[in-house]
Structure formats: C-alpha cells, structure tokens
Specification:
It comes from Pseudopedobacter saltans. It is a multi-pass membrane protein. Keywords: Cell outer membrane, Membrane, Signal, Transmembrane, Transmembrane beta strand, Transport. The strands form eight sheets. A five-stranded mixed β-sheet has the order 10-17-18-13-14. A four-stranded antiparallel β-sheet has the order 3-2-5-6, with no helix packed on it. The chain is mainly beta. A hairpin with an 8-residue loop joins strand 11 (about 150-155) and strand 12 (about 165). The chain has six helices and 24 strands. Among the domains are: about 1-95, Carboxypeptidase-like, regulatory domain (Immunoglobulin-like), CATH 2.60.40; about 105-260, Ferric Hydroxamate Uptake Protein, Chain A, domain 1, CATH 2.170.130.10.
C-alpha cells in the first residue's frame, strides 16, 4: 500500500512539473489611440524573460510566455510606453502619442528670459555652437545669412577686419546705424578703431604732422565686439528696432544683439579642447590681355595712357615675349589656426568656467597678420 501511494505521489509530482513548464502564448495587436490605426515597429518586451520582438505592418504580434503573471511592455519613439499584464491570450493595445515639444526660452534683455512662443514679436536666436562651427575669427561674419533682415559687411579681406552690422536698413543719415550689443546684460562698445582716428587725436594737441604722417596708413584695428571668442557664446538673440527700443530706449533704435555667454555647471570637472587649421588662396584673378603692347594707333609708346581720348593698343607682342605675372607672385597662401581650451565645474554653492583661445591668422597679402589671445573666467 505504501508503495502504491509513493508511486502516485511521484506521478502527480511529474504531472505538475509538466503542467508548470508549458508555455503560454499571447497574440495581440497594437493600434494608435488617436486614429485606431495599426502600428508597425512597436517593441514588445517580456519583463520577466527579457524576450523582445516588434510588431508587423498590421500591428500584430505573438509571444510565448512562461505564465500569465508576466508583464509586457510596449514602446515606440514618440508614444507613451505602456506596461500590461499578460493575463489574456488576445490583447488589444492602444498607444497614446507623447507630446515632447520643448518651449524654447530666450534672453530678451537685462537678464530677463521669456518663452519664445509667448513673445508678441519675432526674436531670432542663433546658438553658440552654430557660430563656433564656422571657425570665423570675427563671429559677426558668421551671423550673415542666419538672421532675416540682418546685413553683415566685412570691411576688407585682411585678418581681423571689422564687420559692419545693419538691421533692417539704416535709421540715421550721418549717425551710427549699428545695433546695440549687450553681453550678459551689459551694453558693450562696438566702435571701430583705426590709425586715422589715433592720428587725429594726437594732432589736436600737437601739430598736423602726426595726421599727415599716417594719412596713408589707415589700418583697421577691428571692432571691439569681435574680440569675443565664439566658443564662449551660449546664444545670440536678435531684437529688431521697436522691440529693442522698448527695452533699451534710444540706444536700441538700430536694434539690439543680446549675447549670452557660457557659464559653469555643477558636477564633475569637464575639459573641452578644440583645434582648427585652415588655408586660403586668391580665388579669381583679373583677366589681362597679353597680345598687344602699350601704345596708340599700333605704335609702341611706354608713356601712353587713356587719359585723353580713346585708348588704342600698340603693336603685337612677339611670340618670344616672356610675361611676368607679378600679381600672382605678390599674393600668398594664407594659413590660420585656432586652439580653444576650457575647464568648467561647480558645486551647489559655486560654479566656475575658465576658457582660453589662441588665434594666429596670416593674410594673403604679405605682412598682414592677426594674433589674438583670449582669456575668460566666470564664477557665480
């Protein structure tokens, strides 16, 4: 009798194990909650066994589970993730779209921040990363073409040349038409300094010899806002005429360019380094005729000019004539490099950021060169 009961117990034990080991199959379909349309590519995950699959083009799926206590997770980019208990063999899952729209916040003036969607006027914004990617020594030139209504004109192609900025055309015939520059809530002077202004200042106290000596040396010392390192800029917000006047008064009659710089952030120390190397050459040369020599009416005359009457070429050059391209020999290939280094860190009480930049640019014209060092330290 005991042997019989033992045999029955062992039989029932194996029977229960076999029943427990059978898989539980779940079929289902995933649809969108808004239009009740089948959704393809939804990731279905069994949280117990970590088995994963994706729905087909009809939104259908079939998965085998160990038991009915398993949890199924349904996820797709742009939709809210759902987790359901697999207690039925047929499931219908409705995914709801997730609104991840981020309301952009911009700095309008004096450190004030506003929601871009809530502003009653347009305030275009350019990120510092966009400006830094251009690798321009004068970041104002990088604003060209990025802001509607903003005209940026470089005074020359020399290294460190000034950039004239005008917003929606001129507002004054003889006055300053450039916008107001505001850096972290502080108005900055963007005046352009050249040798003629220095000579004029010195000649007022002495004689006119200083001004006369430098009358042919009107070198451009660039505008002061160009001294900023693009790697230190977080964002640039453009405020046009009426909007700038409402905040800054008559100083903003020509508009305002509000610059927000980067600040240190709490956490571990972060080190950033960037290096760029560029070269430039003269792209286009003037076309010069090399068939006729100087002269008039076919007669050679080295003093012939077109000052009086019509200009007529002299005789043809011989085939053995050697031409020297002095213009191409004058210009050279320009090389420039820029290196940036920054360190930032902070705690709950103090955040800091230190940055430095080295710029070395040679122009295509001999003896033209720009060397600039930038160092910046902020803490708050």
């Amino acid at each position: 009798m005991k042997l019989f009961f033992r045999a029955c117990f062992v039989f029932l034990l194996f029977l229960s194990l076999d029943t427990w080991g059978q898989n539980f199959k779940v079929n289902g379909v995933v649809r969108s909650a808004s239009g009740n349309l089948p959704m393809e590519g939804v990731v279905v995950t069994d949280l117990k066994s970590h088995k994963m699959l994706v729905t087909d083009e009809g939104g259908a799926f079939a998965i085998e589970l160990k038991d009915t206590s398993s949890l199924l997770r349904f996820s797709l980019v742009g939709f809210k993730t759902q987790t359901l208990k697999a207690n039925k063999t047929d499931l219908v899952v409705l995914l709801v779209a997730e609104d991840k729209t981020v309301d952009e916040v911009i700095v309008t003036g004096y450190g004030q921040t506003s929601s871009k969607r809530g502003l009653p006027y347009q305030a275009p914004t350019v990120t510092g990363a966009e400006l830094a990617q251009t690798r321009r020594t004068n970041f104002l030139n990088a604003l060209a073409g990025r802001v509607p209504g903003l005209t940026v004109t470089s005074t020359s192609g020399m290294p460190g040349a000034s950039a004239s900025v005008m917003m929606r055309g001129g507002t004054s015939i003889g006055g300053n038409n450039q916008p107001l520059f505001v850096v972290d809530g502080v108005a900055m002077d963007n005046s352009t300094v050249d040798q003629s202004s220095i000579a004029s200042a010195s000649s007022s106290s002495q004689t006119g010899t200083a001004n006369l000596a430098l009358s042919n040396r009107n070198s451009d010392y660039t505008n002061r806002i160009a001294d900023m390192n693009p790697e230190d800029i977080e964002s640039v917000t453009i405020l046009k005429g009426p909007e700038a006047t409402a905040i800054y008064g008559s100083d903003g009659a020509g508009g305002a360019i509000v610059i927000t710089t980067k600040k240190g952030k709490a956490g571990k120390a972060r080190i950033g380094y960037g290096n760029s190397f560029t070269m430039a050459q003269v792209y286009r040369w003037p076309e010069i005729q090399k068939e006729y020599s100087r002269g008039t009416n076919g007669i050679y005359d080295p003093t012939a000019t077109n000052a009086y009457g019509y200009y007529y070429f002299g005789p043809k050059y011989d085939d053995s004539t050697v031409f020297y391209d002095n213009m191409k020999h004058f210009f050279r290939t320009s090389f420039s490099q820029q290196q940036d280094l920054s360190v930032e860190s902070g705690t709950k009480d103090l955040n800091f950021r230190i940055s430095g930049t080295y710029v070395n640019q040679n122009g295509v014209v001999p003896n033209t060169k720009l060397t600039r060092y930038n160092f910046r330290f902020t803490a708050f």
